[in-house]
Design brief:
two-stranded antiparallel ribbon
């Protein structure tokens, strides 16, 4: 699965993320990658510590490499 361009940052403890590829799903994890949640730009999650980010194919079967950002 090819790596997709993923833009991510934490602004005021809120995670902001998006991808340049339409149809890709952005997921994030706050527990070291054990559990993944779907990112919703309309309800940006409040995060702390290190957050892992990845993109997923629309069918949820393939994933990009994991990147991280610190809150």
């Amino acid at each position: 699965f090819p790596y997709t361009t993923l833009f991510r940052s934490v602004v005021g403890s809120k995670l902001e993320a998006n991808t340049s590829f339409p149809g890709m799903v952005v997921e994030y994890s706050t527990d070291g990658g054990k559990n993944w949640l779907r990112y919703d730009n309309k309800a940006r999650p409040q995060v702390s510590g290190e957050v892992q980010i990845r993109t997923a194919s629309p069918d949820g079967k393939r994933f990009s490499r994991v990147d991280s950002v610190k809150a």
